[in-house]
Amino acid sequence: MKISTRPTARIHCPIEPEVLLAEILGELPIDEARLVQLHMRTCERCQARSEQLRTAYEKVASLSDIAVVPIADVREAVLRDSQGRLRAIRLTRGLNLSGRGLLIALSALVAALLLIVVIIASPFLRSHFLTTQRSQNSLTHLSAVGPGLFYAETVKLIPVSYNHTQWDLGEVIAIDERTGRVVHSLPASSSAPFLPELGIGAGTNIRPALSADGHTIVEAAIAGDGRTPTAFAAVDALTGQVRYVQPLALPAGAEPQSDPIIHQLWISSDNKTIFVLTDLSVNGVRSPRLLQFALQTGQQSPNVVPPLDDTHATTVLGNDATMILRSSSMLYSAAPATDAHGHAGVSITFIDIPKRTVAATLFIAGDFRLFGLALSPDGSQLFLFNGHNDTVYFISTASRSVTFSLVLGDPGKAPPTGSALQNGEDVSLAVTPDGKQLFIALDAPSDTPRNFELYAVSIDQQSFLSVTQLPQPIGPITLTSDGSSVIMLRDNGKLESIASANPDLPVGWVTLSDGTQIIQTVGADVPVGK
């Protein structure tokens, strides 16, 4: 069946079944999809027709154990199968075979071909036996968690071709926060996604960056041959189109490296600049370097600003630190440190990006074995959480000093049934888009069993709001586009949600139908017109 995806200026009621099915499958252009969704919010008739189509489609899909695949992929598979059958028919006619003789001859031929392929092309098979389909959510009829789109990255890689070069990009899925449906699988490509072998696809742990306007996703790009330095790609967040792939220009003296040289990626809040924190080997010594690129074109900024050659700045960025970049002028870094008297604590470093030097350092004494750092949306405050004593420090980015410290108090009894951490202790922080609330996920050892706690803090009132205890590790947390829900990435690679206003036990939100794991969340946005 041919699905009509032509853009329309307005919606005709009742909406044609072909258009409704295309909307269900996520094949409509974003503008037309928005019109359809807006119409169905006020039209019970079209909404009922859509639900009937969705139910029928899901029943048909459930008849098979394989994941639901988009119509375009089905069409390609049918074409490949029909071409294969045509070749087989031509072969049998050429050999003049029929009946049982045909079956025996073909079986022997297939066995011989398989043996040759296994012997000669086994490296190729190891990579491509794991070819899979675009990710889809297996859960349906979920409660709305927000009004926009939520982006997350899966373990799959998608091959793309740019400037006659093959690159592999991590699959980024866009999830409708109202329905939990995967509406986009990015980037767009004529090749199917694949699950990489163990040890292949290094660099997918680099978190993609979502621009403040929600139009662009920037992520690490892995060269198809696995030998050239890592590049990054800019992808249209709505269409999946790869705008460009930009390899990093290595500075003089840098040695070619097979391992990824991108450490972190950011996009400035004015949607103009991409920042790439690299870790290069120069004359046999690893050295951090901060590179800048124009978001619109990918052009690398000329070396008119000093590199990260300030000894202090290089040392700071070389540590295992929590780093946040939210503007084009300042980089904030937190790392364990000791003062001149040998007292342990955390050092907050303010790095001036244009000058590539340390502008200030704030030392906070204490046992900070487990800590996290977050920044308010307007960039006026940093929030440092100490998981050892459950204290939140409010830090002014203007005065570069602690303005308030809040002890979160006794969280209460530990849950009666806890489980050991699989990935060690961890802290994750998230600030609501309006800057009014701070959420802290603490996966930390306590007395038996371990504690897995989600704290809620009022930033305006500088007060403790609530704590929710879970029997399992919480994992990294992110907020939905309007901050109404906290999204948790659990150890099993699934997403769960909790209402921000009334945190309680989480509920399932995204479980990919083919069992593929989500490896990290990217962010959320409300597209214009939604």
Describe the structure.
The chain has 530 residues and is of the alpha+beta class. Among the domains are: 17-62, no CATH class; 71-128. Helix content is 19%, strand content 35%. It contains seven helices and 27 strands. The protein has helices at 17-24, 30-42, 44-62, 71-95, 99-120, 122-128, 311-318, and strands at 149-162, 165-176, 182-186, 209-210, 216-223, 231-236, 242-247, 262-267, 273-282, 285-294, 322-325, 330-338, 344-352, 357-365, 371-375, 381-386, 391-396, 401-407, 426-431, 437-444, 451-458, 463-469, 477-479, 485-489, 495-499, 507-510, 518-525. Strands 1, 2, 3, 4, 5, 6, 7 and 27 form an eight-stranded antiparallel β-sheet that branches. It has a four-stranded antiparallel β-sheet with strand order 11-12-13-14. It starts with 16 loop residues before the first helix and ends in a 5-residue tail after the last strand.
CA radius of gyration: 26 Å
Unreliable parts: 1-9, 64-107, 117-129, 412-423
Number of helices: 7
* Class derived from helix and strand content: alpha+beta
Q: Estimate the strand proportion.
A: 35-45%
Q: Tell me roughly what share of residues is in helical segments.
A: 10-25%
Mean residue pLDDT: 77
- Counting DSSP E segments of at least 2 residues, the number of strands comes to 27
The geometry reads as: globular
Give the end-to-end Cα distance, rounded to a whole number of Å. Answer: 29 Å
Largest sheet: 8 strands, antiparallel
